[in-house]
Amino acid sequence: MFGTQPATTTAGATLPVLTVLVEDKTGHVVTSDGSLVSLKLAGTAGGVLKGTAAVQAANGVATFSGLSLTKAGTYTLAATDGALRPAKSRSFKIEPDSSTAHFSLSQFLPSTISATKPLPPIIATLEDQFGNIIKNNKTAVTLAIVSGPAGGALKGKLSTPFINGVATFRNIHLAPAGAYTIKLSDTALPGNGSLPSILNITLT
Q1: Which whole-number Å values give the CA distances from 172 to 1, 120, 166, 179, 180, in the listed order?
Q2: In contact, 132 and 153? CB cutoff 8 Å
Q3: Closest CA to 128 of 45, 72, 184
Q4: Helix (H) or strand (E) holding 160
Q5: Which of 34, 37, 74, 201 has the greatest number of CB atoms lying within 10 Å of its CB?
Q6: Which residues are bridge partners to 25 per DSSP?
Q7: Which is it for the CA torsion 109, 115, 121, 125, positive or negative?
Q8: Distance between CA 35 and CA 27 in Å, rounded?
Q9: Pairing state between β 73-80 and 36-43
Q10: Could you give the count of Cα atoms lying within 13 Å of 94 in the half-sphere of its Cβ?
Q11: Closest by CA position to 87, among listed 113, 62, 104
Q12: What is the mean pLDDT of residues 15-31?
């Protein structure tokens, strides 16, 4: 059985030290046991348990340290030891690493766009360094011009909140014709998230 259970942890961070007890049929730890105990991960697709997942028991206790996962989701661990009945852990979660939040543009605009029409939708996803979508952030993303022709202006709803990790700008108009650099930014985000995401657009 698991002596110390896995707990909710941030993606990329080290899980708390886990212990697995080798017990006899009466539930007592077999202190003379030094067999090999292995861990197997189950849960969210794509999750990979990193670190040493097989260790020798000492006095009937197998101790696992330095384990981590980078894929956010819900998991369980199964401990196996030869012919012994496997032990299953309680479920635990891996949360996105919000300290490394940054924008990922999930829909790229064409480099040349007609000035007579609104811009195609601009869709930004908030992700951590491992590509996990950060869904619990509701701060607002702002769209602004960095450079462009004199008198250039954006019109429409230029600030929008993240909804389940996605911010979408629709029906945005940009004029007059010319070459523009526009940015998406959210200064409420920590670390790299406060840096703008740049788009280069030419209106014809």
Answers
A1: 58, 8, 17, 16, 14
A2: no
A3: 72
A4: strand 159-161
A5: 37
A6: none
A7: positive
A8: 17
A9: antiparallel
A10: 29
A11: 62
A12: 93
**Average predicted confidence (pLDDT) for the chain:** 91
Residue ranges in the chain assigned as alpha helix (H): none
CA 188/CA 141 separation, integer angstroms: 9
The tokens of 174 are what?
Answer: 């940009």
pLDDT per residue over 35-81, tens digit each?
999 999 999 999 999 999 999 999 999 999 999 999 999 999 999 99
Q: Domains along the chain?
A: 2-95 (2.60.40.10), 98-203 (2.60.40.10)
CA-wise closest residue to 9 among 56, 75, 61, 57 = 75
Residues 100 and 92: their CA atoms lie apart, in Å, by 22
